[in-house]
Amino acid sequence: MSSAPQDLGSAAAVGGVSPEPRARLVWLLPIGWFALTVFLGFGRRIAGPPWAEVTVRLVAVGMVVWLLRLWVSRRRMGTAQSMPPGSALTTWGVFVGLVAFRVFLDQAGVGSGIGWFGAVLSALLLLMSLGWWED
Q1: pTM for this predicted structure
Q2: 118 burial type by CB count under 10 A (0-12 exposed, 13-18 middle, 19+ buried)
Q3: Whether 11 contacts 70, CB under 8 Å
């Protein structure tokens, strides 16, 4: 009998059962928000140029497709896993970036620094989601 510790995580992964929990249902909230953004845009109150509406909707479609691809594959019985590291930061970064873009389109918000704060925060969140500082 050996006193060496056993690696149960890799043994469970080889057997087809993942030791990690499934991706949570709370991920449907950002998926739903980005899906609503695809269909509704920013709304009728903010009238921006046509390229802004197209850009916002394309970014939202990209996020819906990306999040659904990650989430659905991790909800199945055989491949149940948690979401990959950095996906929450990416989602928050894009969300904050779209809100900052909306502030820049609104004439009342152009003079305030809230839009710039949101743009910088969005860039930092997206950089942090890359995980380049981790070993």
Answers
A1: 0.74
A2: buried
A3: no
